[in-house]
Specification:
Strand order of the largest sheet: 2-1-3-4-5-8
CATH topology: Rossmann fold
Order of helices and strands: EHEHEHHEHEHEEHEEHEHHH
Structural class: alpha/beta
Bound molecules: NADP nicotinamide-adenine-dinucleotide phosphate
Number of domains: 1
Strand content: 5-15%
CATH superfamily: NAD(P)-binding Rossmann-like Domain
CATH architecture: 3-Layer(aba) Sandwich
Radius of gyration: 18 Å
Number of strands: 10
Largest sheet: 6 strands, parallel
Amino acid sequence: MKILIIGNGWIGKRCHESWPDSVLSDIKIKSVTDVIALLEEHRPDVVLNAAGVVGKPNVDWCETHQQETIFGNIVLPILIAEAVQQKNIYLLHMGTGCVYYGYFTDPKGWKESDPANPLAVYTKTKYAADLVLSTLPNVGIARIRMPIDSIPSSANLIDKLVRYPKVVDVINSATVVEDMIKVFYKLLEQRATGIFHVTNPGAIKHREIIALYEELVDPSHTNEWLTEEDLVTSGLAKKKRSNNILQSPNLDALGIAMRPIHEAVRDAMIKYSENIK
Ligand SMILES: NC(=O)c1ccc[n+]([C@@H]2O[C@H](COP(=O)([O-])OP(=O)(O)OC[C@H]3O[C@@H](n4cnc5c(N)ncnc54)[C@H](OP(=O)(O)O)[C@@H]3O)[C@@H](O)[C@H]2O)c1
């Protein structure tokens, strides 16, 4: 299976390193013609769209850069979807589980079929793309959350949490990158359509991730704790962040399983401690 990965960023590169049968494009796409040219050059069987605008240094950037965020997260996926429809090639598009704010009445969490309630420019644009792309045949949408990786990176939740002097005390669904890469491959192989919550079953507290870091990586690490409300009122974030728990019945229905969150995060942290040496 030849996979064309669009988006030469953190996740695009991580997938490319793991898939010998992939090509990674770093072309800046501006039109459907640009995408058609890429498809004709590489002749892929399937496409992963890992391109998007996440905001740098963080997602608050999107609050004041609406046009760039709308282009990268809504217009760009539609251009890619238009091209793959013309060429009849399957597309797996990356979404985010951060389109849900708060905890659902069902303790197992939000299902893929539950309408979302995005509040920020970033999450509104990501949800807009989900709504549009999910109407198309031959397209799957993989929503990930708070990626946790065994390889240090500024985008890795481990690096983010241990770098903050004050950390929010919350519980969330999360995605362990090693598991995500395997699930994406299976979704691409199956050309699975619809929306998928690609999150490890269960939920994990930021306190538990930091405790693992202190146990396995750096026992001298310390931080202070904040409540969710403190994050915005103290000025550390412009916009309320998404905290939620998700379930993945659509993945379950395909027989695709991920490791339970605590097992997968411990494994990632052990590897992380080796990788930073
Ligand atoms: N990281 C997370 O925590 C997270 C969580 C949930 C979902 N996601 C989703 O996962 C996807 C990948 O995120 P990431 O963390 O890998 O972000 P990233 O490191 O910023 O990578 C995104 C890449 O897309 C590229 N890009 C933007 N506009 C493009 C265009 N018009 N044509 C071609 N490439 C373009 C960017 O290039 P430039 O940098 O040159 O602009 C960048 O290389 C995004 O859809 C994001 O919403 C990420």
